[in-house]
């Protein structure tokens, strides 16, 4: 499918979705949000795709929700349309792993979009922030909720109340991102990670994603029970037999997603 605000490329089972609204630093307007949900759902359904990378430009992953588009909206309009609820739910429902490869600004809805992915690899020029307070609003797609779970209350309050930006180094130290690499190496690093994931059993990768995400929703005992049940269920798959046999036979596993 061709998109107005995205470039989509599939190679070696990795689908790379690049946000492409350079004139607005990839601000998330309604066209981009709709197209992004469609592209992610298409990748999730495609047999050709085993892992997804979401990225932006060297200057901006995304500078937030589109302020021009939002500025004149009324409470009744945003409440009635449930602004951003459907995008949050549709992106959170993607079952294949999604890596956010972030360079430049990831602000407001941009930081929230990166946090909706499964993990974040940052370029050393990345800047994260929840500056919505400067616009007279709070964050609206997880900036007060997911960010707090990533970095803890004190830093989340700091980010959301002052609107200051966090460097990639601070974001890694705080647990928001998993790795920081030189900006020029960002896509190489993200693609390498995606290809590693694409070599695994997709069934297992989806089960891992589901189990880790449950840890955000459940108390420890319930989470451990969920994990144990998922772990037990993997023994019903051919990929478990193949993975363990391959280890014992000292060869590469040939997973078939069965
Ligand atoms: N919405 C719409 N347009 C945006 C935008 C946004 N969030 N961010 C940047 N742009 C546009 C600018 O208006 C500008 O367009 P024009 O050339 O037509 O004027 C263009 O992108 C380039 O931006 P700047 O000239 O401002 O670039 P800069 O390098 O000087 O500054 C920046 C970069 C610090 C990221 C600055 O653009 C900025 O502060 N952007 C807004 C960040 C922000 O507040 N994000 C939160 C949005 S609200 C939100 O996301 C709510 C939510 O939780 C859902």
UniProtKB/TrEMBL annotation:
One biological-process term from Gene Ontology? fatty acid beta-oxidation
Its keywords, alphabetically, are:
Fatty acid metabolism, Lipid metabolism, Lyase
Q: Does the keyword Lipoprotein apply?
A: no
Q: Which Gene Ontology molecular function entries are recorded, alphabetically?
A: 3-hydroxyacyl-CoA dehydratase activity
User: For this protein, what reaction is catalysed?
Assistant: a 4-saturated-(3S)-3-hydroxyacyl-CoA = a (3E)-enoyl-CoA + H2O; a (3S)-3-hydroxyacyl-CoA = a (2E)-enoyl-CoA + H2O
Its Enzyme Commission number?
4.2.1.17
Q: What class of enzyme is it?
A: lyase
- Could you tell me which Pfam families the record lists for this protein? ECH_1
CDD domains on file: crotonase-like (cd06558)
NCBIfam families listed in its UniProt record: PRK05862.1 (NF004517)
Q: Which family does it belong to?
A: Belongs to the enoyl-CoA hydratase/isomerase family.
Role, per record: Could possibly oxidize fatty acids using specific components.
Q: What is this protein called?
A: enoyl-CoA hydratase
